[in-house]
């Protein structure tokens, strides 16, 4: 039986910031995605990362998205995803989120190749959306040389990757498929649904008991990918951080659903700093 994630995970993971710190202490994250058709996806992922408090956020996307990105989120740095400086930038990051709005083009495939060639064991890679669809087409796209991998498929994406049709996605079958996909085991699977399951490196299984159908809106998963990446950038790649990110996303969604028919992903992101402040546990002041 999976263990229910509970509210206490938020105060366990979210820490009050010490005075003697700077942006360099809260992690560097790069988000790769946003084709000329799907710019909104990478912007929503970026808003997730910024609003959970990633120290430095950079975005590699199609140049057509630059103005919209900076108009909404001037906190984010931008690099054209064709830029020759991308490999060097990847090397500087703690976390790389790849996939929201990436698309399936030759360029998208090239970007996954560049990611795999430049990522190291010190880094965490979060793969979402199109990046997972490309892995489903060719397992060689999986950057398994990263220190830690986090996969965030919805059930249909997981069907494509694992070859398990949705009715057959039981916990046991999912764990077996995950082991086949990443034999070295440095992977966490966030299998999204109305009650998301999380599969840890050690074979542990968790279920998210909260969330609501107001969250069934395009961009909600892109936002989660950014939240997961931003939380890992700042609190480290432990399973607890990942569970807190999943819970926080749904908790924020539930707060908004109390008096909204639909939960807009951008509104969810904007509500995060206030919620996190409430759950921050005190550290000794320095
Ligand atoms: N504003 C934007 O730019 C947006 C861009 N998006 C991007 O569009 C690309 C395609 O992703 P999509 O997910 O839309 O398309 P997919 O075709 O990969 O999956 C969506 C379909 O899967 C099925 N499905 C079954 N179980 C599901 C579950 N539990 N959750 C969700 N879907 C389930 C549904 O029929 C749904 O229509 C990705 O790159 C994605 O990031 C989407 O994230 C939506 C918003
Ligand atoms: N009915 C629902 N109940 C709870 N959570 C939901 C519901 N529908 C969607 N969600 C959540 O919204 C997110 C949707 O992710 P995804 O399908 O990848 O969206 P997108 O690709 O459009 O950004 C997931 O985190 C999922 O758990
Ligand atoms: Mg998605």
TrEMBL record:
Pfam family, one: Carb_kinase
Record keywords, A-Z: ATP-binding, Lyase, NAD, NADP, Nucleotide-binding
UniProt key word Lyase: yes
Enzyme superclass (EC): lyase
Catalytic activity as recorded in UniProt: (6S)-NADHX + ADP = AMP + phosphate + NADH + H(+); (6S)-NADPHX + ADP = AMP + phosphate + NADPH + H(+)
Sections of the chain in a coiled coil: none
YjeF C-terminal domain span: 6-279
Binding annotation for AMP: 192-196, 221
GO molecular function, one term: ATP binding
PANTHER family the UniProt entry points to: ATP-DEPENDENT (S)-NAD(P)H-HYDRATE DEHYDRATASE (PTHR12592:SF0), ATP-DEPENDENT (S)-NAD(P)H-HYDRATE DEHYDRATASE FAMILY MEMBER (PTHR12592)
Subunit-structure text: Homotetramer.
UniProt function note: Catalyzes the dehydration of the S-form of NAD(P)HX at the expense of ADP, which is converted to AMP. Together with NAD(P)HX epimerase, which catalyzes the epimerization of the S- and R-forms, the enzyme allows the repair of both epimers of NAD(P)HX, a damaged form of NAD(P)H that is a result of enzymatic or heat-dependent hydration.
Listed name of the protein: ADP-dependent (S)-NAD(P)H-hydrate dehydratase
Organism listed in the record: Lactobacillus xujianguonis
Gene: nnrD
């Amino acid at each position: 039986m999976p263990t229910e994630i509970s509210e206490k995970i938020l105060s366990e993971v979210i820490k009050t910031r010490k005075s003697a710190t700077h942006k360099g202490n809260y992690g560097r994250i790069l988000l790769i995605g946003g084709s000329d058709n799907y710019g909104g996806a990478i912007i929503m992922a970026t808003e997730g990362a910024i609003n959970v408090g990633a120290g430095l956020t950079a975005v590699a996307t199609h140049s057509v998205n630059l103005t919209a990105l900076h108009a909404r989120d001037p906190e984010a740095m931008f690099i054209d995803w064709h830029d020759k400086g991308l490999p060097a930038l990847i090397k500087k990051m703690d976390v790389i989120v790849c996939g929201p709005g990436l698309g399936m083009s030759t360029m998208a495939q090239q970007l996954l190749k560049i990611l795999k060639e430049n990522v190291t064991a010190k880094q965490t890679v979060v793969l979402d959306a199109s990046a997972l669809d490309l892995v489903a087409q060719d397992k060689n796209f999986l950057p398994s040389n990263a220190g830690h991998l986090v996969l965030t498929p919805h059930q249909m994406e997981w069907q494509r990757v694992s070859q398990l049709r949705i009715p057959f996605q039981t916990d046991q079958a999912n764990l077996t498929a995950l082991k086949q996909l990443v034999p070295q085991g440095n992977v966490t699977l966030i299998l999204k649904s109305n009650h998301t399951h999380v599969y840890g490196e050690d074979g542990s299984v968790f279920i998210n008991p909260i969330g609501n159908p107001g969250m069934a809106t395009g961009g909600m998963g892109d936002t989660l990918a950014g939240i997961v990446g931003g939380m890992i950038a700042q609190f480290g790649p432990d399973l607890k951080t990942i569970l807190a990110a999943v819970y926080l996303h749904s908790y924020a969604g539930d707060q908004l659903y109390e008096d909204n028919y639909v939960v807009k992903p951008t509104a969810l992101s904007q509500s995060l700093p206030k919620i996190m402040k409430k759950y921050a546990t005190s550290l000794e002041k320095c």
